[in-house]
Request: fold
Amino acid sequence: MNWLEKMSGAIDFIEQNLESSLKVEDVAKVACCSKYHFHRMFFACFKVTCAEYIRRRKLTLAAADLLHTESNIAQIALQYGYESPNAFTRAFRHYHGINPSCVRSNNVKLSAFKRLSYSIETHTGDIMNYRMIDVPEFKIVGKSKCFEFDDFVKEGPKFWKNYVNSEKYKTLTELKQGRPSLVTQSSMLSAYFPTQHGQRDEFLDVLGIELDTDTHLNEFEQFTVPAGKYAEFTCTYKTSMKTNRYIYSEWFASTGFERDEDKPDIVSYFPIPFRPTGEMQLRWWIPVIVNS
Reply:
């Protein structure tokens, strides 16, 4: 089964089970991959998380049921997996801008989120070069924060902007003084570690430096990146998010590689003196499984 079939099957599964307690990990199983990898692929393809898509589709159908059936609010709330009418009302009001009790009045405006469909886009003449490399184990020291996928887009940039302007970050950068590291060859990097903590859909975001010695720095957190096979992509800071979306929405699907779920994505930063931040060179390392 290729990725087009997997993703299409996952969307079919969502649509067939909207009137149930639908969990992202159940959808990921249909797509034959981990919850973490499915999150990344889904968001890259559709620019909305799977959990948010499920929520929007449930509330779209709930509004239609209020308009076209005689079911009361409590019945519809239960039908779409809400624990109470109050919880349903809050979610409904947040999405549609009105209370569900107002839907059967005249001249109300409602939001409708259509069913998604998946296809691998073809960009004529658009080629993304990559190479496969073996990365040895190395350590990172720095700052970390857990983000839920739904919150990262709005909370992540603000959190890291505040940290980069702190004295703690200044101390961290002074440890390297701009010198390249042994493995990544960069003076600063980010790592995105998968987590599987219960039912939380989250990952660990780390900003730090590669530690070239076994010295433990008590003032910073320390993380180990396991040795493994990685696909390497290069881009600029300005195009980094576009590159990441390409990797997860098209590259995996078109090459047939599978992500190595136990390892983090790594981003290395290579500033260019006296040049705008947008022109800074970046390198993505994406962990993959290579079947022998």
Summary: The two ends are 19 Å apart (CA to CA). Strands lie at 131-135, 138-148, 188-194, 202-211, 221-225, 228-236, 258-259, 265-270, 281-289.
